[in-house]
Design a protein that fits this description.
four-stranded antiparallel sheet, about 30% strand, alpha+beta
Length: about 120
């Protein structure tokens, strides 16, 4: 089990390095955070500059999933890989939102006055 986790971590790291070169070709992509690999292993979602991005785990062009002035991070894949839950401070504190894995409108799931963060789906 430990070897599998290490290999998955290495795959995520390599894919993020590839994504770093393609997120914004004209500048160095720093602060790529919270990478999570999809259940099928084909896609990685990560946080960069307060938005969520996705990139094929084999490498390629990173695609921005969220475009919002709020800070969004801590993505979590649904077990079937169709949705992504994440934390966003759109309303002053962090709440959990969910959206389609391909992007689009996000739906707010929590409304508590304290911050909420997704840990699993």
């Amino acid at each position: 089990m430990r070897l599998k986790t290490t290999v998955s971590g290495a795959v995520c790291f390599v894919a993020l390095l590839v994504a770093a070169g393609t997120v914004v070709a004209s500048e160095t992509a720093l602060w790529l955070r919270y990478p999570v690999i999809s259940p099928g292993g084909e896609t990685i979602v990560f946080s960069y500059r307060g938005d969520l991005w996705r990139v094929p785990s084999a490498g390629g062009q990173a695609i921005q999933l969220t475009v919002h002035e709020a800070h969004e991070y801590m993505p979590v894949w649904s077990p079937d890989g169709s949705k992504i839950a994440f934390a966003s401070d759109r309303y002053g504190n962090f709440d959990v939102f969910v959206m389609e894995a391909s992007g689009g409108a996000a739906t707010r799931l929590t409304f508590h006055s304290a911050s909420d963060y997704p840990t699993s789906f």
